[in-house]
Amino acid sequence: MRARDVMSESVFSVSADGTVLDAARLFVNCRVSALPVVDQAGSMLGIVTKADLMRPQPEERPGRMIVDVMTHEVVIAAEDTPLAELARLMSEHAVKRLPIVRNGRVVGMVSRTDLLRALIALETGHDESGPRCERDQQLRHDIAAACRGRSWSRAQQLDVVVSRGVAHLWGIAPSDLVRKAYQVAVENVPGVKAVKMHMHIVPPSGARVGL
To answer: Which one-letter DSSP state was computed for residue 153?
Structure first.
C-alpha cells in the first residue's frame, strides 16, 4: 500500500490571506485539527493547526493573519510513497499527519490513524504492488462513489481501506440501520470480495436508545 491507498482525499484548506478567526471557524465547522494554507493558485504554502492558534503571541490583537502563525516548513509526501516511509517521516519529524502533494497542490492527507487502519487491513503483514494494488485503489474510489449522496449516507469520519479486494470501513454511524446500509452498499460494489465493518455506532445527541 501507498499514500494514495489510505489518504483522506477530502481535504479542507484555508487561504493564506485569511485571518486566525477564519481558520478557527473552519476548525470548528469541519472538525479537523490541521489545515493546509494555500495561495490563490491553490499551491501549498504551509500548514496551520489548532495548537498554532492557541500559541501565545508577543502582541495579542484582533485580525491576526494565518501566515503569522502557520508552520512554513512542512513535511510532505507524494502519492506513491510507501506506508513504511510515511511512518518513518512521521516518527522522524514528530508530526501527526502528512499532506500528500501533487505538483505543489495538496491532494490528500495521511494521519497516524490512517496508518493504523492500513495496518489492520494488511492482516498478512506484507504488501503487494502491481495490478492487484491498482485494483484495490480503483475499488476504494468505487466504494466511495457507491456511498456518496445516498439518503442513508450519514456516517461521520467515513474512511475506506481496500486490501486484496477486502473492504474495511471505518466511521461513526448514528444507528445500526445506517451501519448496515453501508455494509450492503459496499457488498454490492463489483469486485469487492468481502466487507469488514469497523464502524462505531453513536446515536445523535438526545436520541433515545432502548426503553
So the answer is: -
For residue 147, CA distances in Å to 12, 114, 173 come to 20, 19, 13
Q: Which of 38-47, 75-84, 120-129, 158-167 has the lowest mean pLDDT?
A: 120-129
Mean pLDDT of the 153-180 span: 89
Question: Is 149 domain-assigned?
Answer: yes
Dihedral sign, Cα of residue 71, residue 72, residue 74, residue 78: positive
Q: Give the C-alpha separation, 198 to 196, whole Å.
A: 7
**The pLDDT value given to residue 128:** 52
Distance of alpha carbon 198 from alpha carbon 177, whole angstroms: 15
Say which CATH number the domain at 92 has: 3.10.580.10
pLDDT of residue 211: 34
Is residue 44 located within the same domain as residue 112? yes
Q: Which domain holds residue 71?
A: 3-59+66-118
Packed helices 176-187 and 131-147: angle between N→C axes, nearest 10 degrees: 140
Q: What is the pLDDT of residue 11?
A: 85
Q: 88 and 188 share a domain?
A: no
Model pLDDT for residues 32-45, shown as the tens digit of each residue: 889 999 998 889 99
Distance of alpha carbon 24 from alpha carbon 4, whole angstroms: 28
Question: What's the gap between Cα 79 and its chain centre?
Answer: 14
